[in-house]
TrEMBL record, chains A, B, C, D:
It catalyses: (6R)-10-formyltetrahydrofolate + H2O = (6S)-5,6,7,8-tetrahydrofolate + formate + H(+). Pfam families: ACT, Formyl_trans_N. The active site is at D228. This is Formyltetrahydrofolate deformylase. Catalyzes the hydrolysis of 10-formyltetrahydrofolate (formyl-FH4) to formate and tetrahydrofolate (FH4). The keyword ATP-binding does not apply. The keyword Nuclease does not apply. InterPro entries: ACT-like_dom_sf, ACT_dom, Formyl-FH4-Hydrolase_C, Formyl_transf_N, Formyl_transf_N_sf, PurU, PurU_ACT. GO terms for biological process: 'de novo' IMP biosynthetic process; one-carbon metabolic process. Pathway: Purine metabolism; IMP biosynthesis via de novo pathway; formate from 10-formyl-5,6,7,8-tetrahydrofolate: step 1/1. Keywords: Hydrolase, One-carbon metabolism, Purine biosynthesis. GO terms for molecular function: formyltetrahydrofolate deformylase activity.
Amino acid sequence: MHKITLLIHCEDQPNIIASVTNFMATNKGNIVYIDQHVDREQNIFFMRLECEFKSDAFSIEKFRNIFKEVLVEKFQLKWKMYAADKKPRMALFVSKYDHCLYDILGRYNSGELFLEIPFILSNHAHLKSIADSFNIPFYHVPVTKDTKYEAEREQLKLLESYTIDFVVLARYMQIVSNLLIDKYPNKIINIHHSFLPAFVGAKPYHSAYKRGVKIIGATSHYITEELDAGPIIEQDVTHVSHSHSINDLISKGRDLEKIVLSNAIKLHANRKVMVFNNKTVIFS
Amino acid sequence: MHKITLLIHCEDQPNIIASVTNFMATNKGNIVYIDQHVDREQNIFFMRLECEFKSDAFSIEKFRNIFKEVLVEKFQLKWKMYAADKKPRMALFVSKYDHCLYDILGRYNSGELFLEIPFILSNHAHLKSIADSFNIPFYHVPVTKDTKYEAEREQLKLLESYTIDFVVLARYMQIVSNLLIDKYPNKIINIHHSFLPAFVGAKPYHSAYKRGVKIIGATSHYITEELDAGPIIEQDVTHVSHSHSINDLISKGRDLEKIVLSNAIKLHANRKVMVFNNKTVIFS
Amino acid sequence: MHKITLLIHCEDQPNIIASVTNFMATNKGNIVYIDQHVDREQNIFFMRLECEFKSDAFSIEKFRNIFKEVLVEKFQLKWKMYAADKKPRMALFVSKYDHCLYDILGRYNSGELFLEIPFILSNHAHLKSIADSFNIPFYHVPVTKDTKYEAEREQLKLLESYTIDFVVLARYMQIVSNLLIDKYPNKIINIHHSFLPAFVGAKPYHSAYKRGVKIIGATSHYITEELDAGPIIEQDVTHVSHSHSINDLISKGRDLEKIVLSNAIKLHANRKVMVFNNKTVIFS
Amino acid sequence: MHKITLLIHCEDQPNIIASVTNFMATNKGNIVYIDQHVDREQNIFFMRLECEFKSDAFSIEKFRNIFKEVLVEKFQLKWKMYAADKKPRMALFVSKYDHCLYDILGRYNSGELFLEIPFILSNHAHLKSIADSFNIPFYHVPVTKDTKYEAEREQLKLLESYTIDFVVLARYMQIVSNLLIDKYPNKIINIHHSFLPAFVGAKPYHSAYKRGVKIIGATSHYITEELDAGPIIEQDVTHVSHSHSINDLISKGRDLEKIVLSNAIKLHANRKVMVFNNKTVIFS
C-alpha cells in the first residue's frame, strides 16, 4: 500500500475539487482524507488530500509526472506531493535554555513525533550533555558579530550534508540571516515568547510585566526577513496577575513555549501547514 | 445561483469521495466546501459538502431524486440535503431563567443567527414581556405532574402548526418525554449546567461546590431518553477556586451556559452537526 | 451592623499590616477579609480590607477622621474607605452596537451587579428603545468634530447632576478628552476589542485578520490620555483559525467583549481594583 | 533574617486576624504576606501568613511554643508552622510512563521547584536510566498481588529513612493502600488523567472517547481511601473533537498531566494548600 499527501493552492475556480478527486479515482487512488479552504479576500483555493494506492507498481515519481501533466498547468497549481510514510528530517538549533529541548526530545523518544532529528546545533556548548544522553550528534558553532557569516555558512553545510527538511529554533536566541532563510523559506520554525504581534523583539516578558497585561502568550512562526513578523503557525496564552513577578512570567511562559513549539512542529512535520501571503492555512 | 448543503454517512468504502464529487461535477455543480471524517473504530464515513448550481432550471427536488437514484442505494448512504438559503425554524422553550433567552434574542436581533424563531414557549408566564419586546409570539403552557401528557400534546401541536425544524431548551428545567423526542430525534438541543458526564441531573453547581472542583463547565447536547446522556455538541469550562460560593458558581456558570448554547445552536442551524451512535461529528 | 471596605497603598515598611489590623481591633471592628500585595520592583504596599462594626453608634465619617489621625500621616497612606453597602453609581455610554448594552442590562436586571445605573448616554439615538424597555433614562448627545467640546461639557453636567461614581464606555466609539478624564481619573472603563497592546486603535479585528493571528482578544482598561494605553483591568482571548473571516472575528469577539467588560465592571464596582503607575492590582 | 510560613484554620470567630497579626508584631515579626478565607457554609476560618524576624536570637522551636501558649488553645487552632527556607523532601513514584518524570526532573534541574528529590521509586526498572542521568537514587520495588503488603512496607521504610515530607505519584499506576495513606495524610499527590469527578478509575481516555466529550482534562489530588475521590489541588482541560482518536486523546492528555501535576507539586511544596473536609483552600 502506498500513500501520498498532496497540498495544493491556486486561484479559486470552478471544478477544481472534482477535477482533483476524479484524477485520483482515474489513477486507482482511494482518497482517505480531503479538506479545503477558500480565502475569499484573495480568491485563493487551498486543498490537502491523502490518497492510497494499492498497486505494487505505484511509483510516486511517475505519479508526480502524471499529476503535473494533467492538472498542474491546467489549474496553474502550486503544489507539493509527499510519500506519507517518509519522515521529514528536522535540525534543532538551541542556545542555553533547555526546556524546549527536553520537551522535544522527550516526545521524540516516546514516538510522538513523526520526524527524524539527525543533529542538534548550538552557539554554546551548555546543552551537549543532553544531546549525548539522547544519542543525537551535537555541533557547537559559536556565533559572534564578526563570525556570523562564517557560522551560518557552516550551518548551511551541515543542513545540506544531513539533507535536512526543516529547522526548529528552540529558543536559539540568535537572529537568522537571509543566507539561511532564502534556502529554507517557510521551513525555519521559531518560538517567540510573547503573543505576537504584541512585544516583538527582545525581553517580551519584561515588556509584558511593565505594561501590566493580564495574559501572556507564546507564538510559533516561520522565520522571515522581518523580525518576529513571519507567518504564525500556533499561539497559546495563560492568565497572569499583579502578583506575578517577571521571574514568574518567565517560568509560566516556559510551559507555553514548550507546548506551542511542539504543536507547531507536529503540524509542520505532518504536512498540515500551507503558507500564502505571510499567513498560514492549517489543516488540523 | 442555487446552493445545497449535503450531509452523508455510510460504511467506509473506496471511491466514495470521488464518486460524490464526480456526481456533482456531472450535474454541473461546483463544490465550494468539502470536509470528511472517517470513524476508524466503527468504520463509518461522514461527509459534508456545499455545492453551487448556476442553472436557473435547477430544482432541489429533482436533484434529490437523481442523487437518490445514482448514489444512495449504491453506497447505502444515510443523507440529508438542504437548500442552503433556507433558514431552519427554531422553537425556544424557557422557564424562569432569562440569561440564555436574552443572549439568544440579542444575537437573533443582530442577524448573527441563521434561523427563524416563530415562537417562544414556557411553563411559566415570567418571561412573556421579554418575548413581547422582541415581537415574538409567546405561549404559556403550564406543566404539572398530572397535566404533563396534555401539555406535551399541546407543545407538539404548536411545533407542527409552526412547521418547526428544531427545538432549543434554554434552561427549560423540565424533563422532556419520548412523545417529543421520538418526533424530533437529535433535534432537541439542551443546555446542561455542568461538564458532562460529571454532575448529571439536578443542582450540578451544588455538587461541583461540594466536590471542590477547580473548573466548572456547561454542555450542550441533544436530548435522548436517558437523562443528560445524549450526543454532546459543545462544551466549555471556566476556572473557579475555593473562594467562590455556590452563588458565584451559578453566576459564572451563566456566562458559560449562554455561550455554549448559542454555539450549539449556530452549529445545528448551519447544518454542521452529524450524529452517529450517540456521538457527534462537527464540521466547523 | 456596619461594614466598610478599605483600600490603601503606601511605601512598603515594617508593621504596616499589624498596625492596620490592630487599629481595627482597637476600634471594635472585626476584620472579615484581608488581602495584600507588595510590588517589590517599586517597593509599594497595597492592601484591601473589609471590617464589620456592631455598634449602632458607628459612623463612617467619624471613623474616617480617626483613621486619618492615627494611621494616614504616620504611614503616608493613600487610601479610600467605602461604606460596603453603598452601591456605586455608573453611567453607561454607548453608540450603535448593542451587544455590551444588552449584556450589562441583563445582568443588572437579574441583580448580578452591585451598582446603580442612573442613566444611559449615546451620541446616536439607535439604542433608545433598549434603554426604555429597561426603564432607564436615555440621553442623546450627538458629537461632531465641531461640537465635541460642548458635548463633553453636557456629559460632564449630567455626570455631576446624577452624582455618578464611574463611567463605562460600552463600545462608545468616541475618543474621550481630558475634560472628562481629569474629572474621573481611573474611573472611566473602556472595552477595547483586541488583546492590548496588540492592535491599538481603530479596526483591530481587521488588523488581526491581516496578521493571521491564531487567537483574538478583548481588553478592558481605564481611559488615560494616551489611546488604549491605560491600566488594564481584565483580558480574555479565544482561538481562531484561517477559516474565520473578518466578520467571524467580529462575531466571536463580541462574546469576549461582553464578558471582559462585565467582569471589569464587577471588579470596579466591588472596589477590588487599585491603580498605581498605570498598572492595576486586582484583589479578586 | 528568619522567615516563617504559618497555616491555620479554626472555627470562624471575631478578632482572629487582629489577634494573630498583633501576636506577630508583639514578637517583633514583620508580616510580609497575609491571605485568608472563610468557608461560610462550614463556618471555618483559614489563614496563610509569612512573617520575617530580624533578631539573630530567633528560634522557630521557641516561637512555636510561644505561639501554642498564646494563641492555639484560645482559638482552638489547627496549625502548621514552617521555616520558609527549608525545602520539603519529595519522593517520586513512577511506573513505565516517562512524560511526567521528564517534566518534573527538567524543572527540578532548572531550579524552578522549591524542593529536594532524595529518591525515585518504581515497580518497574524501565525508567532507571532517566533517574541515573539526573543523578538521583532509583529504587526498583516490584509489586504483585501477593507481594503488595511487603512492597508497601519497603516503600514505607524508604520514606522514613529518607525523612520524606510528601510523595508524588507521577503516573505510578498502582493503587496505594491505607498503610501509606495513614502515614502521609494529604501528603500523597496523584495525577489522574481525567477531569474528575468524570471518568473515575481505569482508562479514562477510552471512556472520554466513548462518551464523545468535546473537552478532556487532568486532575491532581491528594490520595484518600476512596479511589480518585480525594481533595482536588489543580485541574486543567483542553478541547478535542470527533477527529481525535483515543491515541490522540492520550497524547494531548500527556501535556495536561505534566502541567497539572507540576503546578500541584509547586503549590504543595510552597505550603499554599490547606485541606478541610476533603476540599482544598489554595492560597496562590
